[in-house]
């Protein structure tokens, strides 16, 4: 009965699987946000400008003969200015830490996806090998049956 069947046309017989070329690239991935720096140059310039401004104000206070109240107010202004600069640096550090954590989360997600993709490709290769093995077994079986019939 099999001898009378039309040959099956396989539209994929010329297709070559690329599964054997698959490699796990997860070890090459890194977090691009891991080494962010804080911009301290702008903070240093702000402090320097505040110091210059406060020094000029102090000179004016001395020249006009202001008392201790003016110097105390000046010291308070200097403290507030430097607190603002420290708050800016802290905000940058917090932002960088958030970006670093988000980058690490994305990296872990990409590594998991890469490993899963690699597993799928390895499984596809194994299935392809099993399919080829079944074909060989089927052909061997046919050959044995023909040998039995010939003998």
Task: Tell me about this structure.
The chain is rod-shaped and about 125 Å long. The protein contains two helices and no strands. Helix content is 71%, strand content 0%.
Quick overview of this protein structure:
This protein is mainly alpha-helical and 151 residues long. It is built from two helices and no strands.
Characteristics:
mainly alpha; 151 residues; single chain
Q: Ranges with pLDDT <50 over ≥5 residues?
A: none
How would a crystallographer describe the biggest sheet? Answer: none
Q: What oligomeric state do the depicted chains represent? A: single chain
Class derived from helix and strand content? mainly alpha
Mean pLDDT: 80
Strand content: under 5%
Whole-number total of structural domains? 1
């Amino acid at each position: 009965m099999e001898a009378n069947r039309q040959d099956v046309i396989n539209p994929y017989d010329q297709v070559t699987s690329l599964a054997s070329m698959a490699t796990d690239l997860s070890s090459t991935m890194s977090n691009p946000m891991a080494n962010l720096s804080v911009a301290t140059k702008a903070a240093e310039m702000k402090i320097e400008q505040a110091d210059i401004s406060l020094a000029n104000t102090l000179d004016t206070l001395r020249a006009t003969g202001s008392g201790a109240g003016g110097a105390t107010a000046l010291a308070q202004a200097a403290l507030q200015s430097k607190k603002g600069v420290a708050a800016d640096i802290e905000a940058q550090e917090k932002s960088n830490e958030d970006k670093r954590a988000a980058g690490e989360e994305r990296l872990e997600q990409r590594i998991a996806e890469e490993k899963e993709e690699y597993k799928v490709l390895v499984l596809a290769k194994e299935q392809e090998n099993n399919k080829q093995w079944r074909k060989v077994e089927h052909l061997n079986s046919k050959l044995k049956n023909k040998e039995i019939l010939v003998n």
